[in-house]
User: What shape does this take?
Amino acid sequence: MPPVSDLVQHAIDRRTERRGDRAYLLELHGAEDVKFLVIGGARAAIVSSEDRRRAAVRWFSAAELAALNISTANALFLGVEAKSRAGRFAVALGDSEADAHAEGLAPLVDLRSLVMQGVIGQESFGQLAEAKMLSEWHASAKYCGRCGAETKIKDGGWKIICTACTAEQFPRVDPVVIMLVTHGENCALAHEPRFPEKMYSTLAGFVEPGEDVRTAVRRETREEIGIQIGKVEFFGSQPWPFPNSLMIGCVAEALDDTITIDQNEISHARWFGRSEVRDMLSQKHAHGLFVPGGHAIAHALIRQWAEAK
Ligand SMILES: [Zn+2]
Assistant: This one.
């Protein structure tokens, strides 16, 4: 088990302006102080505290990965550690490859459950999200969308270029609006069929081509619970690498309070007062209702509202 002191994670400077400089990347990659994180499909190699309540990226040296027989030849360039300026890369394995190395990489933990349990620090989560989103993009861009020829990966993983027509592709991020709908002293929370039983959360939906964020918030709220929205305020955002979203958190003021749900997306929705939501946040609700946990932006949106008064 790696030492708990590794739980302190340092920020990474992405050095976006140097990604195209192959000699620079090779120099960082070959240096003594280079470190690699490892993801295997949806799982990440981590370090965790003894009580398993805190987790962070596990950084491997080149020698450690060589001993595990894991190649770093196609490692993705994450950047340099902000203080030491040492290179930081990601090795992305497929599910079966990760299974084959499970013992050496242990603990190898599902990234989504790390977030939902609220045990992974923000810095670590951002770095793992970056690696996962890049590798999933590579898996879906092996062939050129224009001419169908094979593509190759460039710039440390940040560009894909067609070997025939030279069309370039860059990593995509899909914007999703996630909104807490409020009306006076209440907020609307919904239960979706895919949720665990008794969990209620904020509404969310993809921003469509040609839409701005506020328009998307208003459209999704109208579609999902039949409520008209007036004022929309930006709250904060969160990368959500399942598979490649950016969650844009907003607080949306309802103009009326008659909920009519879209049964294709939502099984139940209603208004909740602040004290009931506080009980859900602290797992003390009389009927066992609860909200998403940990670092999910839905949790932060709900908490800031419930604790505002
Ligand atoms: Zn092409």
